[in-house]
Amino acid sequence: MRDVMLRFLACISLFFFLVPVTYVRGPMPVPNESQYISLQPVLIDAKNPVRTRVGRLEFLGGWTITSDNAAFGGISSMVALADNRFLMLSDNGSLFGFTLDEDKNLAIRPFIAPLPDGPAKPNAFARQNWDSESFLHDPETGQFWVGYEHQHSIWRYGPSLARKEAAHYPAAAKNWPENGGAEAMLHLPDGRFLVFSEAAEYSEGGYQALIFAADPAEPSSKPVRFGYQPPKGYHLTDAALLDDKSALLLHRRFTPFGGLSAIVSIAQLRDFQPEKIATSVPIATLKSPLKVDNMEALAVTHDADQTIVWIASDDNFIALQESLLFKFRLLKGKVSRKEPNLERKNEKAGASPGFSTFESD
Length: 361
Prior knowledge:
Blueprint: H1 2-13, H2 15-18, H3 21-24, E1 38-41, E2 53-54, E3 57-66, E4 75-80, E5 85-90, E6 94-101, E7 106-114, E8 132-137, E9 144-148, E10 153-157, E11 164-168, E12 182-187, E13 193-201, E14 207-212, E15 224-228, E16 235-241, E17 246-255, E18 259-268, E19 277-278, E20 281-286, E21 295-303, E22 306-313, E23 324-330
Parallel strand pairs: 15-19
Antiparallel strand pairs: 1-3, 2-3, 3-23, 4-5, 5-6, 6-7, 8-9, 9-10, 10-11, 12-13, 13-14, 14-15, 16-17, 17-18, 18-20, 21-22, 22-23
C-alpha cells in the first residue's frame, strides 16, 4: 500500500514537469524575510545506512535544506566557492548563500536575497518571471553569469552580484520552448562558453546547445549550434567542469511509476563541436531506494587529489518535495567510449546580497 501511495504522490508531482512552476505554487505565501537556513543530515539510503557507493560516486554526506523565508526553494543551479561557501540560485530569481559546517550540520552566515536585475516583464499586465536556471562563476574576475528561461537570455553580473553588467537575448535561442531554455552552462578552459537547452530539439538528434566564442552576455557575441544527446529518457539539468579535458553532467527523469531518478555522466570537452552531436558516459544513477528528488544543481570542488561532487535538488516549491544537498567523492575509473548513435532521435521523458556575504568564515 505504501508503494502505491508513493506512486500516487509521484504522479501528482508530475505537474512540475508539465506546468510552469508559477501555476503549481498556488497563492503567494505571506512574505517572510527570515535569513535563517537550517540543515538536517540525511542518508543516501535509509534502508541500508552503511551504503556509500553509487556507481563511481562515494557518498560523504547529505542534508535537507529549509528556511522560513518565502523566497526559499526551487534550487536550479549552484556555485561552490572556497571553504565550503555555497551560492545557490533559485528558479524564482533568488540567491541563497551559506558556509557549510559539515561537522555541526550548520549553515553559517546565511543570506537570502533577490538578484539585482533580470528580464523585464513581456508586457504591462504580465507578472515578473525571473526563471533563472543556470549559474557560472569566474574565480579570476569574480564575475557571474545567469541563464534565464521564458525570456531566453544570458546575463552577466559583477563580482559582488550587486549589479548587472551585460545581457544578451541570442536570436539562436528565440524559439526554444518556454520551459526548455538555458538549463546548464560551461565556461571552457579555452575561453568558449557553452549554453545547453533542456528541451529544444536538435535536427540531427538530441537537444540544442550553443557555443559562444566570447562572453555570451555581450550582444555582439554570436553563437553556433551543436547537439547534446543525454542518456535515454533523461534531460540535462546542470553541468560543471571536471578538469581541462572533461565535464560532469547531471540529468533527471520522471515517470509516473518509476518516480524521480538522476544520472551523473562524464563528457569529453573535445566532443563539443559546432554542428556535431556530443554524448556522455553515465557513471552513477540515483534512483529508489536511494534518497532522490528533482536533482538540478551540480558543482565540483577539489580537495588535494580528490574530486568532490556536490548535487542539490529543486523542490519546485511543493511540500511533497525537498531541497537536498549531497556530497560525493568521485572514484577513479576508466570512461569507456562508444560511438554516438546519430540516428537516435529525442527520447521524451516523462536586494543585492553584497560582496561580504560571499566570503567564507
